[in-house]
Design brief:
Elements lengths: L6 E3 L8 H16 L7 E4 L1 H10 L6 H16 L2 E2 L5 E2 L1 E6 L10 E5 L3 H11 L2 H18 L13 H8 L5 H15 L3 H9 L9 E6 L10 E6 L11 E6 L3 H5 L6 E2 H7 L1 H18 L3 E8 L2 E9 L4 H13 L5 H6 L3 H7 L3 E2 L9 E4 L1 E4 L2 E7 L2 H9 L4 E5 L7 H6 L2 E4 L7 H9 L3 E3 L10 E5 L4 E4 L4 E2 L7 H13 L3 E3 L10 E3 H6 L6 H5 L4 E3 L6 H9 L4 E3 L4 H7 L5
Parallel strand pairs: 3-4, 16-17, 17-18, 18-19, 23-26, 24-25, 25-26
Antiparallel strand pairs: 1-2, 2-7, 5-6, 5-7, 8-9, 8-11, 9-10, 11-12, 13-22, 14-21, 15-19, 16-20, 20-21
Helix pairs in contact: 4-5, 5-6, 10-11, 12-14, 14-22, 21-22
Length: about 575
């Protein structure tokens, strides 16, 4: 990599390699090429990140390229970074090639200082907006870059804020500090845990997107939100999302505020809402997948900040995959690749049985953020959740709101409940990625030590352990369709016990596991032609059987094992 290639300008003229610029910047480049309303931006590449992590310092030439990128943004916006008139403020955001929602760091409103605040106040005629923007920057910078989370007194003067935060003296110094923080966020504990859980390589690095700010907190005709092109909980082919007036993006994902529905946006900003739906339709058609779109409205004008393939609940993954084949957007192979064995396994987990709610007591009520039912003991500390889950205990993680630092507890928990936030908060997005039942915005949550049943579809948390029942994959038309498609592509026969009368010589996997000899399972299956047992419905056990040469699997349900059999060819 030469000193001239540490940065790339996202002007829409080219579509650079996603591995080099990360998914966020790649989506900006594509949207600008599509002539969609996107604030101008440039990106520092993943190669620059890897060089920084290796050397412990910026690679030679990077700072000069950053300065050139800033000059380009000045010219593109007619503003000036660090200027006392028409100041340009920036967002500095991480972006790996593979989406890691909520895992790394963002700094907004970078470039504001006393002079810039005065200029923004004079330009907008809204001194409260300028002061609010100044405070937001200092709070984020303290938390993300200085690792000193603070909540500043809204009524205090900026001088006291800066003394409390000890922010850099100049906007340029602040920008370089933010870039370092984003680079370093690649190796945080939470990011490593997320990559381990999702089998994402650790040597990819993150890009840093530097983009001109637009202000959802500007005035009564401003706001921010998230839109999904289809419902990420159910897969229903209707736009789904949230809008928070007079706010910035961190307000939505933080879970500290409960946003409004898109119908409220339609009533408040009809032109921006219509433009958003039109852009949403174009982006889904372009990507042929459910889109997760971050946007800001500034004084009634829509700006798109990012579009990516949406994390989705298991129900949504199945419905969208099957529906999109019917709509001609994708083929059968793509549909099968978009539904993981683990998603189907989660979909076929127990659900509330008939009559379960007759005498059930609701311990908390919120918004369902990821469907599914799970029972466990309430814990409120992610470290405790991880520790107790290791002993085989089913734990429900209850937090005021989650942050990326809670990821290890969310992975360990059977369900997640938050007291604040909406269906696009960090807790909701990450729970959908993990396939965990999730309820958000319950207010006062259940107490530690309580046994609860979490219903991520209804948004209710019930006291005690309620009776549940198993779904029937054969009775679900979409699952039955996936079974037919997968069977046509699988080189391993997967049968239900009722259909396996002619299969002889099956190794009984369940018997081996019940004897406490799981370590011997690999040798047991090696050379076996057929294997049977409920444990083979677990995708990991099914993969082990395939690797050992098993040609027939007898288990129920069959779809998780079938999908595991075709992963290499779908």
């Amino acid at each position: 990599m030469t000193a001239e290639n540490w940065t790339v300008r996202l002007d829409g003229s080219t579509l650079p390699d996603r591995r080099l610029i990360g998914g966020k910047a790649w989506s900006i480049a594509l949207m600008r090429a599509m002539d969609l309303p996107v604030p101008p931006a440039f990106v520092i590449t993943t190669q620059a990140c890897l060089a920084y992590l290796e050397q412990g310092a910026f690679p030679a030439g990077l700072e000069a390229e950053i300065d050139a990128g800033l000059a380009w943004l000045d010219a593109a916006t007619g503003r000036q970074f660090g200027g006392a008139e028409r100041p340009l403020l920036l967002s500095v955001r991480s972006g790996a090639a593979i989406s890691m929602p909520g895992m790394m760091d963002t700094v907004l409103n970078l470039g504001i200082d006393d002079a810039a605040e005065a200029a923004l106040a004079a330009e907008s005629g809204l001194p409260d907006f300028a002061r609010d923007t100044h405070r937001r920057f200092l709070e984020l910078y303290a938390s993300i870059v200085l690792k000193l989370p603070v909540e500043l007194d809204h009524g205090a003067a900026p001088q006291s804020w800066r003394e409390q935060v000890a922010a850099p003296a100049t906007p340029r110094e602040a920008l370089l500090g933010a870039v370092r923080a984003v680079f370093e966020s690649w190796n945080t504990r939470r990011a490593k845990r997320y990559r381990d859980h999702n089998n994402i390589p650790h040597d990819m690095g993150t890009a840093v997107t530097i983009q001109a700010m637009v202000f959802g907190n500007l005035d009564e005709h401003s706001g921010t939100g998230v839109l999904f092109s289809r419902n990420p909980l159910t897969g229903e082919p209707l736009p789904y999302g949230e809008y928070l007036p007079r706010a910035q993006g961190e307000d939505v994902v933080s879970g500290k505020f409960t946003p409004l529905g898109l119908d409220a946006m339609a009533a408040m900003e009809p032109e921006a809402h219509a433009a958003l739906l039109a852009a949403c339709a174009r982006l889904e058609a372009e990507h042929r997948d459910i889109q997760d779109i971050e946007f800001t409205v500034q004084s009634g004008v829509l700006y798109l900040l990012q579009a990516r393939s949406a994390k989705r609940a298991p129900d949504a993954a199945v419905r969208a995959a099957v529906d999109m084949v019917g709509e001609g957007l994708i083929d059968v192979g793509q549909a099968l690749a978009r539904v993981s064995p683990e998603q189907v396994q989660a979909l076929l987990l127990p659900r509330l049985g008939s009559g379960a709610l007759d005498a059930a007591a609701v311990a908390a009520q919120g918004e369902g953020a990821c469907p599914g039912v799970a029972c466990g003991v309430v814990v409120t500390d992610p470290d405790e959740a991880e520790r107790r889950a290791r002993t085989g205990e089913a734990v429900v993680l209850v937090r005021s709101t989650t942050s990326p630092d809670d990821i290890h507890g969310m992975i360990a928990a059977v369900a997640v409940v938050t007291e604040q936030g909406g269906s696009t908060s960090h807790a909701a997005v990450v729970s959908r990625a993990l396939g965990r039942p999730c309820v958000v915005g319950v207010g006062k949550g259940p107490q530690p030590g309580a046994i609860v049943t979490v219903d991520g579809e209804s948004g209710r948390v019930y006291a005690g352990q309620l009776p549940v029942e198993m779904p029937d994959e054969a009775a679900d038309a979409r699952l039955a369709r996936l079974i037919d498609w997968a069977r046509a592509r699988s080189t391993v026969q997967v049968l239900r016990p009722a259909d396996a009368g002619g299969v002889e010589g099956c190794v009984d996997v369940d018997a081996q596991l019940s004897d406490g000899e799981a370590d011997g399972l690999k040798s047991l299956l090696h050379g076996a032609v057929a294997a049977k047992g409920a444990a083979l419905a677990n995708p990991d056990t099914a993969r082990l059987a395939r690797a050992q040469g098993v040609r027939t699997i007898v288990t129920e349900p069959v779809l998780p094992a079938l999908l595991a059999m075709i992963e290499e060819v779908a």
